[in-house]
Structures are given as C-alpha cells and as structure tokens.
Amino acid sequence: MPVCGYKRYVMTNQDPELLRRLLRAKDRMDAASHEEWPVDRLARVSHVSEAHFARSFKDAFGVPPHRYLLTRRIERATALLRETELSITDIAFQTGWKSLGTFGRTFRDVTGESPGELRERERAAQHNPEHVPACILSAAHRPNLTSAVSEKRRQEADDINDSTEKAEVL
Amino acid sequence: MSQGVGVVGLYVRDQDEALQFYVEKLGFRVHTDAKNGGYRWLTVQHPDQPSFQLGLFTPGPPAVDAATAQTLRESVAKGAMPPLVLVVDDCRAAYEKMQARGVEFTQEPIDRYGSVDAGFRDPSGNGWKMIQGRKAS
Lengths: 170, 137
Prior knowledge:
Oligomer: heterodimer
Number of strands of chain B: 8
Mean pLDDT of chain A: 81
Number of helices of chain A: 10
Structural class of chain A: mainly alpha
CATH topology of the largest domain in chain A: Arc Repressor Mutant, subunit A
CATH superfamily of the largest domain in chain A: Homeodomain-like
Largest sheet of chain B: 4 strands, mixed
CATH architecture of chain B: Roll
Distance between the termini of chain B: 25 Å
Number of domains of chain B: 1
Largest interface: A-B, 22 and 26 residues
Shape of chain A: elongated
Helix content of chain B: 10-25%
Low-confidence stretches of chain A: 1-7, 159-170
Radius of gyration of chain B: 16 Å
Low-confidence stretches of chain B: none
CATH class of chain B: Alpha Beta
Number of domains of chain A: 2
Helix content of chain A: 55-70%
Structural class of chain B: alpha/beta
CATH topology of chain B: 2,3-Dihydroxybiphenyl 1,2-Dioxygenase, domain 1
C-alpha cells in the first residue's frame, strides 16, 4: 500500500566504508548524548567534511544528526525518570539540556506526555526489565522520531487516520 | 550435547580482517576455514564453548545477488544487524584487556541490573554487548 512520504526513502547506494565511519559518530553520540555534538565535531569523528557529513548521516540513518541526538537524550531522560529518584531538573541538565523549559517542551513533543506524567505512569506500571540486556531495552524504548518535532505537532493536528499508515511505514 | 544450534553466522566486510579480530582480539579459535572457489566457509569458536560455532561470512554470490550483497554490506556498516551478546566472568577485566588490544568500544563498563555490561563493535560494524555473567548463588 503506498504510504505518504515513502518516496523519500528511495535507497541510493552508500559506500560501506563511509557508513562504518558515520556509525562511529552515531556511536559517539550514543555514548555521550549529554555532550554537545556540533556537526564539525561529528564530521571529525567520521573523517568527512561538514557538508558531506550532515547529508550522508541522514541518508544512512534516516534522521539528521541533531535530531538523532535529541532522541537519545529523551531516551536517557526516560530511563532516569523511570529508574531513579532524581528530580526532573537534575535529569534535564544531566541529559544535556540547557533549560528546563526546552526539556519539558521537547519531551512532551516527542513522547506525548510530560516528564512528570511519564514518571507517574511508569511507576504505576512496575516493569521488571531485569532479563533484557540494557542496550536492547533502551533501543526498544527509543522514541521513534522520524519527523521534526514541529512537524509532529502539525501532524497530530490534521492526521486523524494516521495510525494505520504509521504501522505500514514501521 | 548432540542436538541444538551449531552455527550462527555474521556478515563481515572482510573475512581475513574478521578472523584476525575474533582470534587475536577476542581470543576465539578457528574451527573451520574451507575455501571452495570464491566461497569461503569460515567459523570460529569460543574456547569455552565447543558445541557452538560463530560463522564469519561475506555476503555475495551464490547465496545472494550483487545488489542484495551491497545492501547487506551497507546494513552491517550501519550497525543495523541484530544484537550479539558475549558473556564474560569479569566485564571490567575483559574491557581492559580488549581495549589494550585495540577493540573499538562503544560503551565503557557500567554497573546496572545487578551486573556489569560494556559494548564494542567488530571492524565490520557488528555490535556486541559484553555482559558479566551472574554467579550462580
């Protein structure tokens, strides 16, 4: 079934050697998502020019590097909300945000609820994640941020029957 | 054990490079290295696990066509292949040793869920989680 926006994912071959170096930049963001990752820093990790990096990263991983970083920060914040007693302010700063307001707004845009709401809901649900390796666990909980946050807000407003289409894309 | 999983394969970009990595850096042993024309069946084994072989294969004909092989090489290089887990007795000690040998770690050892885990990649991009086994109590 044709899906809106599908054509954007038309594959073009990418050099595996380049992809392996781009993966290194992605790994570095994963390992330290609270740090600042401007394009020049990422490009150095991958040994490519800045212009080439941003474009190649998006082609390879489906999202621009900055947006990828955002998903990782939200993911870490979600884990900290679930697993620790840290205050929401502490979590915001630990996960790399410079302002509590930006954190709360972005968090809600991505996950659909506020950090406090998520914490309450997770606590009520009482998960037992013991036997799944942590990385896999966190990947499974990773927010699926394939559209820009502002774009997502718009979509929510005008996509009523979007749920079946999303299932097709994923 | 006479029944069970005997071989699970990984796709790698270069079998010589993979062989060197798994043997020299991780301490695996070569189980089978058989060439037949352009095809090479290569498996390695963990020294403590004689009933299991890890296959190190390159995608290509006759198993897959050239275009599919390219897609698979890209997937491996993007780290998109399924998760792998290596169980060790002492995660921090293994980390120190492997890092000294030049293994590319993606995550330093972290204490969590009552164990310690770290992450590394092979040269091709396959991602491994290294988890400290829980002592039987």
